[in-house]
Structures are given as C-alpha cells and as structure tokens.
Design a protein that fits this description.
The chain is of the alpha/beta class. Helices cover 45% and strands 18% of the residues. It has 17 helices and 14 strands. The strands form three sheets. Strands 6-7-5-8-9-10 form a six-stranded mixed sheet, with helices on both faces. Strand 12 and strand 13 form a beta hairpin. The chain starts with a strand and ends in a 7-residue tail after the last helix. The structure holds guanosine-5'-diphosphate and magnesium ion. The site of magnesium ion has 3 residues, from helix 8. The site of guanosine-5'-diphosphate has 16 residues, from helix 8.
Amino acid sequence: MRRKALLLTTHRDTAELEELVSALGADVAGTILQKRSPPDPVTYLGAGKLEDARATQRAIGADLVVVNAALKPGQIFALQRFFAGEEEGAVEVYDRTRLILEIFRERARSPEARLQVELAQLTYDMPLVKEAIHREKKGERQAAMFGGGDYGVEDYYNMMKKRMARIRRDLAKMRHERGVRRKHRRRGGFHLVSLAGYTNAGKSSLLRALSEKETLVEDRYFSTLSTKTARAQSDRRDILVTDTVGFIEDLPPWMVEAFHSTLEEIALADVILLVVDASDEVEEMVRRVRSSLRVLHEFDAEIAPGAAGPYRRGLAPILVALNKIDRVGTPVELEARANALVQDGLVREDMLVRVSAQTREGLDKLYGKLYDLIPDYDEFEVALPASPESEALIAWLHESADVLDLTRGNEVHLHFEAKRSLRATLLEKLAAVGATALREVKRESSLSGEPSPSAGPADAASSAASARSDGLPGAS
Ligand code: GDP
Ligand code: MG
C-alpha cells in the first residue's frame, strides 16, 4: 500500500518536495502552510498550527509527515513525539534531508552505493543520537531507534562511530575495484546510455519510450547496477539505457558522495543523456541545465584522479534532450527555449534534441543522435615481447583503453578495446615495441556507414590482415 504524506511548509513552493515524495512512492494527501518567518525554533510550525496539522494528519490518515526544510535535531524529536505520541513508528516525521536519504537508500544497488548511503545515514543520525544522549541525561526515556532498547544510547553512539570508520575503509578499498563492471558491460557488446537530469524532467518516461518493449535486462553483470536498466530495441547495435536518481537542489555537502554513487552508471556511460523539462520557466530551465552540467563535470573530476587504471577517459559526451515539447505552446516558444540554452553557450545546437516521451515526437532523431555519439571501438589481441618498452605501453593502455585480459609468459598476451580515435597512435606504439597481432576486431556502431559487421571469428582474420596493412605484423 502506498504511504500517505502530509507536507508541512513555511513557503508556498512545494513542487520539488512533492516530486521527492512521489519518488519515494508515497502520495501527498495534504499540505499545511504556515506563513511565519522564521519558523518556530522548537516545533517548526508553532503550537497553534501544529494542532491543525495533527487534526489534518488524522483526518486524512497520513502515516508520513514531511517537513519542507532541514530540521534541527530538537525539532525532529519534538515533531516525532507530537505526531506519533507513545505509538512509536505509527507516524514517521521526515525532514527534507531524511526524505532524500530514503530515496537514495531505495535506489542504491551496488555494494558501494549502499555503503555510501549507509554512511550518509549515520552522518545524519549522529546529531540525533547526541540529542538523545542529552535528553536521556535529563531523565527522558529514549525510543528504541536510538539505542534506548537493549543498548544504552551512549553505547549506540560509539557503535555508530566504529561503523562509520569501517565503512570509510571499505569504500577506499572498493574505489580501486570500481572498474571491473565496466569491462563486463562492454564485453557484452552493449553500448551504455545513462540518463541524468532533475527530478520530474521525464527520465523514467523517456527510458520507457526508448525501450519499445520494457525489457529489463537480467544479465548477471547488469543486475547489480540498476533494476531500471532497459535495452533499447533497435535493428542496429544494442544500447542499454539506465535510469538514475535525479539531481536534487541544495544537497547537504556530506550527502554528495552518496548521491554520486547512485549516479555510478554515469561513469560507465558511452553517452550521457541529460533530460530537461522544456515546460519549466525559461530561467529555471537554464539554471537547472547549468547546475546539471556543473555536477556532471565535478563528477568527472572526481572519478578521474582517483581511478588508478583504465578509466581516465574523461566524461562521455552529454546530449541534451529537451523533453515535454508537447507541453510547450507554440513552435516559436519552443525555439525561444532552445535558444536560451544555446545562446548562453551552455549547449551546442547539435547536442540538443527536442523530444516528447509522451507523444514520442523526436524519438527517431534522438536514436540517430545517440548512435552518432557512441564511439567506435576496436578490439585487439596482441602479443608483446617482454621488455621495459612493452611495460610502458601496457601502462599507457591501462590509462587509455579497456584492458580485458592480460597473460604474462615468455611474452605478454594482451586483449583490449580502444576507441577508434586512438587507432593511429595505437598502431604506431604497438609497432614500436615489436607487437604481433593475434586478432583484431573492428566494431562499428555509427549510423553513417554500412551495417555493423559481426564481431565473430570469421572477420577476425581479415581484421588482423588490415592491422598488418596498417603496419603491425601478424602472428601467422
Ligand atoms: P523523472 O523524475 O525524471 O523520472 O520523471 P518522470 O519520467 O517520472 O516524469 C515526471 C512527470 O512528467 C510524469 O508525470 C510524466 O508523465 C510527465 N512527463 C514525462 N515526459 C513527458 C512528456 O514528454 N510530455 C508530458 N506532457 N509529460 C511528460
Ligand atoms: Mg524517475
């Protein structure tokens, strides 16, 4: 059964909060507006309004009270007690931060994302537990959720601190292993498109529209990443489109890591599709695009330096989907909106597509663009003589390509994929160390050009031959 939420707010703009509540799978059943500023330091709403709020909460049967602000621990305690009374858990009170945390928790799939979210949760709980300790010292009995049960509140606090230290260590370790999944994906022969954008822009709708049949991919490589991965049906190469948690305004700094980890598909993507709501106010739309791009670029800066190994390839190209064009009054109005993004120099005209997930208008163009943007890869299997020069080349390949397999013996057997744009440099470097080609497969994905050749053993021979003609001696 869907939860029913009552919103408490001191300002009229509740659009984002409503989106977040529905992202959690709850329905907004009522809103209490208190036009006082600043909010009450103890109860947020003040005593009179609070009574109104409880009457409404009972009348509509809301089991969730969501406050449109980040609250202080004392306020959370006061409100929790006021709404739930002695019946612990009957009504939950979330402030905005807690609401976002719950959404992250629900969406975190990989072990790393889960740990990031747990760490954020503990960070959020710390001041609450301190408040509980404070209250316990004053003789107030504490609810079980903060260790008022079997453990004392103070023991609980110490356990939390230990757990946080442990999580930080585990995360540091995991960061080194992060790339493994990426290899698996590309090995599967898929190209990856990740959806980004603010809540309510239409990411999930677009995902559904792009995957004509909503095929959830159950492949074991993908299942840990996101249940929201769907495979776009196409007569050309398969692309996987993955949904992500939307961007959120004013995220507390300590939640940024947890947010990024829920965005991990971005790091794996061949193309990032930034979905923008064309029916937003123009200024709002421009502001959101600007801050989305900032987040994405920060994210890139963050994954690059820490990624010891093959993943420093920079951010994937960002294609902007101006969605919900069916809700924009006239073509002139639509062009004004597109221009606002282009003129500011935010978005290149050729990186902007106008679409409607609802009417499917523009989807063919979007497909075409995606295929144009997906880079072409060549797959190589080579043998390198054991030498310092080969080691330098291997280090370079780890930086610039995807090394799929590496076997050391008398010589080094190396299986890797590299972007087509690296081809000339690559062949030169391979020739310089005296590499021999065991196999090379060209992988076409672009729309322009002939249909994709299958990457089977049959054309491996001819590809190896083409590698030879490029200056790399074959093995046979
Ligand atoms: P998300 O939060 O980015 O995943 O956004 P959703 O896909 O959940 O869409 C948010 C709301 O916008 C839903 O009510 C959708 O039905 C609506 N929506 C999405 N795309 C379109 C569109 O192209 N046209 C119209 N009119 N509504 C849309
Ligand atoms: Mg969504």
